[in-house]
Amino acid sequence: MTVNSGRAVFLTEYPDGLPKPGSFVVREVDIPHLKESEVLLRTKWMSVDPYMRGRMNPNVKSYVPPFTLDAPLDGGAVSEVVESRAIEFNPGDHVVSMQGGWKEYSIAKPRALTKVEPDQAPLSSYLGVLGMPGMTAWAGLTQILEPKGGETLFVSGAGGAVGSLVCQLGKQMGLRVIGSAGSAQKCSWLKQTIGCDIAINYKDYPSASELSNALAEAAPDGIHCYFENVGGDHLQAALQNIAIGGRIALCGLIAQYNAQEPVTGPTNLANLITRSVKVQGFIVAQYAHLRKQFLGSVAPLLESGDISAREEIYEGLDQAGAAFLGLFSGENTGKALVRMAG
Ligand code: NDP
Fold first, then answer.
1. Which residue, of 69, 83, 133, 211, has the fewest CB within 10 Å?
2. 157: Cβ below 6 Å to ligand 1?
């Protein structure tokens, strides 16, 4: 199959604060001929993830380099091999890559690809519950929080890709689970489908002290484990209610990703000392060596229907910018994904 060009999303600017719909533009780009040991991929599903906002800041040093304005964006994707000059892959194979996102076609080397089987799980799940967000949930819970049965787990951002799996795995481990999310609909879903014992709509509690009071009511004996996806008032409220010997997995701080001014930290950090709390930040890639163990525990739960993996699906590359922006207005329940046409 010969492909000479394809559509791809570019940033038009480095956003200051929340990106705008006009911060993204779709352009036609040339697809070069394959070199030896390369494969041509056609994207079937692409992921939008909060960490991509960090890559839109040109001067911030992070674990992934910033995007540039003169090249298409990239990100996680499930793609089909359409042409191969590498012995490892044949046309028709399906692969996960970190570069196939935001574009119709990409060229990759085999070492950057993980083969996945469409008959084992839905292809989209390799970007969600069986992919990077799922691994994040599993690693933060099992490798950092290390909960014991009967403990209370608080999960912020509980309605999203990472948080909703943390809650469900927490229930599987015999924990009392409190989730917070930003709408009544998400809270109903957290209680009815995800199995949270208590769901807090944080928008009903617009200050840290109000959120803290709601949490105190939900967890009268304190929170033993806190899975942090949000930051800001959530962190302040969690620190106010953390139990002696509590653990905090610092996974994400989405409330500050679009901040235009330096963000003030919590004022109650001293509770970490007086209550002997362990706090650990982490990047999911640090646990890549445990991928088999992660899949071994989560894939059977997905197959048996013991966990739910809801997806918020946007249709077509033209919706990719909107899908990304939706992460910051809470439009997604579960994993936000873009299904590519064709
Ligand atoms: P989600 O699917 O949870 O989507 C983001 C959600 O965050 C939104 O749906 C919204 O839900 C909530 N949100 C957005 N802005 C705010 C705000 N200002 N205050 C409170 N909630 C807000 O995303 P992911 O599951 O992919 O990621 C969750 C977190 O995990 C992020 O912080 C992300 O950066 C982090 N992460 C970290 C990784 C790591 O290796 N450390 C890897 C992957 C993710 P709502 O309606 O509830 O407001």
1. 69
2. yes
State whether the beta carbon of 330 lies less than 6 angstroms from ligand 1: yes
- Candidate from 56, 162, 178 with most ligand 1 atoms within 8 A of CB, to mutate: 162
131-136's contacts with Cβ under 8 Å and 24+ in sequence apart are 131/47, 131/76, 131/96, 132/47, 132/49, 132/76, 132/284, 133/49, 133/160, 133/161, 133/162, 133/165, 133/335, 134/161, 134/165, 134/294, 134/298, 135/284, 135/287, 135/291, 135/294, 136/162, 136/251, 136/284
Nearest CA to ligand 1 atom 17: 255
Q: Ligand 1: distance of its center to the CA of 139 in Å?
A: 16
Does any ligand 1 atom lie closer than 6 A to the CB of residue 258?
no
pLDDT along the chain (342 residues), means of 10: 92 97 98 97 98 93 89 98 97 97 98 94 97 98 97 98 98 98 98 98 98 98 98 98 98 97 95 98 97 97 97 98 98 98 74
User: Which residues are CB-contacts of 262 (< 8 A; sequence separation ≥ 6)?
Assistant: none
Q: Which of 230, 254, 279, 313 has most ligand 1 atoms within 8 Å of CB, for mutation?
A: 254
For residue 175, what pLDDT is reported? Answer: 98
Residue 134 tokens read as 């799922």
Which residue's alpha carbon is at the smallest distance from atom 15 of ligand 1? 328
Question: Is the CB of 14 within 6 Å of ligand 1?
Answer: no
Q: For the chain, how long is the longest CA-to-CA vector? A: 65
| Cβ atoms of 13 and 289 closer than 8 Å | no
In short, whether 162's Cβ falls inside 6 Å of ligand 1 is: yes
CB 154 within 8 A of CB 225: yes
| Chain centroid offset of residue 180 CA | 16
The 8-class DSSP code of residue 34 comes to: P
**Angle, in degrees to the nearest 10, between helices 291-304 and 132-139:** 100
Which of 111, 97, 98 lies closest to 55, judged by CA? 98
pLDDT at 57: 95
Cβ atoms 275, 243 nearer than 8 A: yes
